[in-house]
Predict the structure.
Amino acid sequence: MFFIRILTGILVLFLLVLLIKYIRLKKQIRYLTEQTEALAAGRTEKMLDMSLVDRDLEKLAGRLNAHYAGQRYTVACAMQHEEHLKESIANISHDLRTPLTALTGHLQLVLKTGLTEEQKRRVETALHKAGRMNALIGAFYELSLLDTDQTAPVKEWINFSNMLLDFLTENAPLLESRDILPEISLPPCSVFLETDRSMMERILQNLLSNAVRYCDGIIKISLAEGENGRAVFCVENNLAAGCIVDTERMFERFYTGDPSRHGAGTGLGLAVVRGLAEKLGGEAAAGREGEMVWVRVVV
């Protein structure tokens, strides 16, 4: 009887030890789970705690730490490679401008010499292609700079209403060449913004160029005061025949509404618009209502 009591006591003690170990093990598993979730969500960069009660759990934590270390190294290498690629693209785009400028100058000189009509037509075609290439290189260079910190905005207070009217006056020949009389809607009072003037000019130019390229004669331009001292600028246009526009992709790089890609568009204009708007702390969006496609910029 006494022997049975001793065995029972030993069994109870053994079960108690197992229960305590099980509880501690569950607690450690929950702790590891919380740490893993924090790492995966980017809330911490601390490696998993290796002071565990179970050797198998320690091995698991070690394996996970090795995995995360390798993953961090891969991400760091990818980011470094991306930065080098952006820098290379910017440098290549910049270097291409010099020979292209020289080529354009020589073609213009050749055009002034005594050429036959056929020769003149061929030189004009080459000049036109060189102009398109120059525009593409310029946009590509600008876009590569947006991905770096080299284009920090220099803000100043400007009368955006006056700036918009001056811009439309300067671009009147472009609109007249396409027989476009834009509908302009401005607020009764001038809209003032603390922003980067050159970036805003580039946004306006790209929005108007995009609208003129794809419209069928109708362009609506509106400006309104937004919340917290912001401005809401919107350009709407109807679509010319053959243009197929996916508004969810309009800000993608190299996306164009010309499926044949035979037009003058590079697809970079609206990507630059969004990049500049975000640099200025704003946003850009696009959509479609019936036959009208709109692009709205809040800055």
Remarks:
- The chain has a mean pLDDT of 81.
- The chain has seven helices and seven strands.
- The radius of gyration is 32 Å.
